[in-house]
Amino acid sequence: QTPARRLLHSKRPLLIAHRGNSSRAPENTLPAFRSALEVGVDMVELDYHHSADGVPFCFHDKDLKRTTNAKDILGQGDLEIAETSTRNLLRLDGGRWYSSDFAGTAVPTLAESLDTIQPGAMTLIERKAGDAATLVDLLRQKKLTGDVIVQAFDWDYLADVRRLSPETVVVCLGKEAIDERTFALVAATGAEGIGWRARDLTASAIDAAHAKGLRVFAWTVDDPAEATRLLDAGLDGLITNRPAELRELVAKD
Ligand code: G3P
Ligand code: CA
User: Fold this and answer.
1) For ligand 1, what atom is nearest to the CA of residue 220?
2) Which position among 18, 52, 105, 214 has the lowest Cβ density within 10 Å, counted as fewest Cβ atoms?
């Protein structure tokens, strides 16, 4: 039993900060991760892409426009992260777009994000782009293969993670209706849970997933009424931009 598997199977639902405490600090930055730890979340969700030279960075969008000052620094706002070097990514401000209070905040590498989060919570790593081998190498280097959960919409990638590192827990992201075919595809990846769009999750879908031995996370739930509906239906993990506000709905040990 790894620490991540123990957490996945805890008796109470998990509180998971979406992109860090992203209602209080710029998403996918170290201040957002630290703020989530201060709330006392179980997990911090983050997104990653590779830089042009193959270094995983925490970042949500495909291009740098919305959340960085790439236009000022690199002369081009709509550059894709995958075509930008590590050297240039490290020059960017990833906080000022959110508020001048966060000016000077870097776009963090996945490695430094794990160093920030793991001492206080577990990381729910969402792969947006990048190969499984690079992630598994990083987790091995940091001795974290059993201490994080990896999720993705690309289920072939998750199967690769599991092949390379069978002890690593993976969760299949998805949306829309859940049926027997969904469960067959999930089972083929070796996933131990599903992370589903909240509005598509019915009580009967949650029951059906549980009957297959899967845990169920929902994204992204900021409305207390929606959180209550899902928790009453037996949800196992609430992925939210507002962990401080929803914290009391999830009983602590
Ligand atoms: O946790 C899953 C959820 O984050 C997927 O959507 O666009 O916020 O990465 P997105
Ligand atoms: Ca995400």
Assistant:
1) 3
2) 52
Ligand 2 centroid, distance to 46 Cα (angstroms): 6
Indicate which atom in ligand 1 lies nearest the CA of residue 239: 1
Fold of domain 3-249: TIM Barrel (3.20.20)
**Measured from the CB, is residue 47 less than 6 Å from ligand 1?**
yes
Number of separate helices (H) and strands (E) present in the chain = 11, 9
**3-state SS record for 88-143:** HHCCCCCCCCCCHHHCCCCCCEHHHHHHHHCCCCEEEEEECCCCHHHHHHHHHHCC
Q: Residue 132: which residues within 8 A CB-CB, separation 6 or more?
A: 157, 160, 161, 163, 164
- Write down the pLDDT at residue 251: 75
For ligand 1, atom 3, which residue shows the shortest CA distance?
219
N- to C-terminal Cα separation, the chain = 20
Q: Could you tell me the residue ranges of all domains in the chain?
A: 3-249
| pTM, 2 dp | 0.98
Cα–Cα distance for residue pair 83/239, rounded to 1 Å: 30
Mean pLDDT of the chain: 97
Residue nearest to atom 7 of ligand 1 (CA): 60
> Of the residues 14, 45, 154, which should be mutated to test ligand 1's pocket, given the most ligand atoms within 8 Å of the CB?
45
pLDDT tens-digit map of 114-136 = 999 999 999 999 999 999 999 99
Distance 219 CA to ligand 1 centre (A): 7
| Beta-strand pair 14-17/237-240 | parallel
